[in-house]
Input
Amino acid sequence: MMRRTFLMAGVSLSAVAVGKSLAASVFLDYTQEQLDTAYDQSFWAPRMAELEEGDGIASAEVRRAMPPRPAKYGPDARDLIDVFAPGMPRPPRSWSSSMAVPGPETLARMHPIRPRPSFRAGRPWHPRREHIDEISGIWT
Output
């Protein structure tokens, strides 16, 4: 009786091993089904549809505020890209609510411009008013 039980256990274990080897491995030891499961983002983000809907609403708001200019980047008629040129001096507060955009005075305090040597012999470069306005006047 013991011998038959042992033989049946051996046969069942070999059947399991053969069953696993029949599934074709696509990458390393993964089958296609295992790869599909690993790369399915809905498992990791169960609220994905809600997040994508929020992205669509934000995109529509940006397109309404700053209409894009389509530009061609290839020979095909489908090779178009939307170019969003900065047409506003400052973005609306709702877009940058999580980021505070510093003014020129704050930028000057945070990153003071110090004289740097120039490539002209014996004459160091000193910042002039137009250089400071050019550097700090991005959002003014």
The radius of gyration is 32 Å.
